[in-house]
Amino acid sequence: MEWLIVGLGNPGARYAETRHNIGWMVADDFARKHTITKNTPLFSAGKGDWYEARCTVGGTDVAVILPTTYMNLSGKAAAHASRHFHIPKERIVALVDEYNFPVGRIHLKNSGSDGGHNGTSSMIEELGTKAFFRLRCGIDKKFGPGELVDYVLKPFAAEEIASRDAMIEKAVAALETLIEVGAARAMQIVNVQK
Fold first, then answer.
1. Contact criterion met (CB below 8 Å) for 44 and 51
2. Long-range contact list for 72-75, CB < 8 A, 24+ apart?
3. Which of 2, 15, 93, 169 has the smallest C-beta neighbourhood within 10 Å, fewest atoms?
4. What is the structure's pLDDT at 154?
5. Nearest-angstrom CA–CA distance, 64 and 61
6. Structural domain of 102
């Protein structure tokens, strides 16, 4: 495996369609499109606290994981998986929700702070570096003071579903671009889109 994609989110049906799980949704669509084995369950139990799918993009092998640790401990699964698959930290991509972006907008960066995101914070702590990719996916900021936790654990509104689905499609394409053309060119391509 040459790349590790980590869909940040929470396990369980109650969280499946929530804003906080947009990372899982992107990971699921990516794996559905690129999985190596078509006649088995899309994700299977990994060798740690994650589900995994093995994919290939243009001849490049990619591991996609969904941590089962819950969001705030995502880094434990990511760090364990990176060791298991022997993938260097600079080829790890975290798929995260971003409330500072409207639904539909994505942004790719290769380092930086946690931006107040607990899943990203856990990854920085457990990986021991800030130098991994984040593909941030907009969930909008329609909440008041003290309402963030409730907001991210609610589903997208009906009128947002089309924009959400288009964003997931863009995010999958962004991952393909990163894998196929490399970081510098991918960030130029992905980050000029609105």
1. yes
2. 72/118, 72/119, 72/122, 73/122, 74/6, 74/8, 74/119, 74/122, 74/123, 75/119, 75/121, 75/122, 75/123, 75/124, 75/125, 75/126, 75/127
3. 169
4. 97
5. 10
6. 3-191
**What CATH number does the domain containing 128 carry?**
3.40.50.1470
Contacts of 110 (CB under 8 A, 6+ apart): 90, 131, 132, 133, 183, 187
Nearest to 82 by CA among 139, 152, 5: 5
- Spatial separation of the C-alpha atoms in residues 129 and 144, rounded to whole Å: 32
pTM of the model: 0.96
What does the pLDDT profile of the chain (194 residues) look like in tens digits? 999 999 999 999 999 999 999 999 999 999 999 997 766 788 999 999 999 999 999 999 999 999 999 999 999 999 999 999 999 999 999 999 999 999 999 999 999 999 889 999 999 999 999 999 999 999 999 999 999 999 999 999 999 999 999 999 999 999 999 999 999 999 999 998 76
Catalytic residues: 20
Residue 188: how many other CB atoms lie within 10 Å: 12
Other CB atoms within a 10 A radius of the CB of residue 194 amount to 6
Residue 45: both structure tokens together: 């139990």
